[in-house]
């Protein structure tokens, strides 16, 4: 298994390394630590005089040296718990560089903190972690809380390939890590809100919702059964509402340590930011989040 972990010196990236030790799936795991430095934004300062350019170059050199020391320190610390650890300094915009690095490595998992040292407000629209989610081609584990014993997981399932991939990911966890999993399937609201429809249409809508409830209950039961066979304690829950908001509220109620959802890869930025379940979960979940990409 290949894991790429992005670090930036923030407490969130330190939490990411701590999380990895808790969910290590096997001894046959390679870990690549990456840190991205973006120099491209300084190309527009080519009109500076020679003295100013020289000063800027020195500052940028210091930045690269500090980044190298950060990686070296993290590599030494990670090597205490991991057999095979590498570190790599990336150039370019952090989100693009990190996502491309994971793709080149054919990573099975990309791990990073949900916030970095320069992101002062939680989960800004353009944050690095959210941009990575758009571009990544593998599962992404976003760390929002310090590592602790993994006791409770909320798993959102909708029957998609990506959500079944999330189930398979959980099955790969070490046999010593078998937390309680609440399998949640959410019936989205029918597009009747805010519009005037005949009473007959509302009655049909109730019938449709009843049929959907039976179907999603069967799905949740099937997923829970699969997890029980793998040694998990699993229960199922069917809810109605906007899926992202319902999953966040359930994770809060369950005091979950991890919220797991599937998300289709290949989304463009507009599609992703405008209301996807994964984006809602990443922004508002009270715990760390695994987004399984297809």
* Count of structural domains: 2
Strand tally: 10
Strand percentage = 15-25%
Structural class, judged by helices and strands?
alpha/beta
Helix-strand sequence: EHEHEHEHEEHEHEHEHHE
**Which spans have pLDDT < 50 for at least 5 consecutive residues?**
117-126
Give the termini separation: 17 Å
Q: Helical content, roughly?
A: 40-55%
| Quaternary status | single chain
Largest sheet: 10 strands, mixed
Report on this structure.
- This protein is of the alpha/beta class.
- It folds into two domains: 1-142, Rossmann fold (3-Layer(aba) Sandwich), CATH 3.40.50; 148-294, 3-Layer(aba) Sandwich (Rossmann fold).
- The chain is 43% helix and 21% strand.
- It is built from nine helices and ten strands.
- The protein has helices spanning 11-22, 50-78, 94-104, 128-135, 161-171, 199-229, 243-254, 269-273, 277-284, and strands at 2-6, 30-37, 84-91, 109-113, 140-143, 152-156, 180-187, 233-240, 258-263, 288-293.
- The chain has a ten-stranded mixed sheet with strand order 3-2-1-4-5-10-9-6-7-8, sandwiched between helices.
- Helix 3 (94-104) packs parallel to helix 4 (128-135) and helix 7 runs parallel beside helix 9 (277-284).
- The relative contact order is 0.14.
- Residues 117-126 have low confidence and may be disordered.
């Amino acid at each position: 298994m290949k894991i790429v972990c992005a670090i930036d010196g923030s407490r969130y990236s330190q939490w990411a390394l701590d999380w990895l030790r808790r969910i290590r799936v096997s001894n046959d795991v390679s870990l690549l630590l990456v840190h991205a430095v973006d120099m491209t934004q300084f190309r527009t300062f080519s009109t500076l005089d020679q003295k100013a350019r020289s000063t800027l170059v020195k500052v940028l050199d210091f930045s690269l040296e500090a980044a190298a020391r950060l990686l070296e320190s993290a590599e030494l610390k990670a090597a205490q718990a991991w057999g095979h650890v590498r570190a790599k300094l990336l150039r370019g915009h952090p989100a693009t560089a990190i996502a491309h690095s994971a793709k080149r490595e054919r990573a099975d998992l990309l791990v990073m903190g949900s916030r970095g040292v320069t992101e002062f407000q939680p989960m800004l629209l353009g944050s690095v972690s959210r941009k990575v989610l758009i571009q990544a081609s593998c599962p992404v584990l976003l760390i929002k809380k310090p590592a602790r014993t993994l006791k409770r997981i909320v798993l959102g399932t909708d029957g998609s390939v990506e959500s079944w991939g999330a189930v398979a990911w959980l099955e790969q966890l070490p046999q010593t890590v078998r937390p309680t999993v609440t399998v949640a399937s959410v019936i989205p609201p029918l597009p009747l809100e805010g519009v005037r429809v005949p009473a007959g249409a509302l009655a049909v809508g109730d019938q449709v919702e009843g049929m959907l409830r039976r179907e999603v209950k069967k799905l949740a039961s099937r997923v829970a059964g699969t997890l029980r066979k793998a040694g998990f304690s699993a229960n199922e829950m069917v809810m109605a509402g906007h899926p992202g908001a319902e999953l966040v509220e359930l994770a809060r109620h369950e005091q979950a340590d991890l919220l797991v959802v599937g998300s289709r890869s290949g989304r463009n930025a507009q599609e992703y930011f405008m209301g996807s379940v994964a984006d809602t979960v990443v922004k508002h979940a009270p715990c760390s989040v695994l987004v399984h990409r297809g």
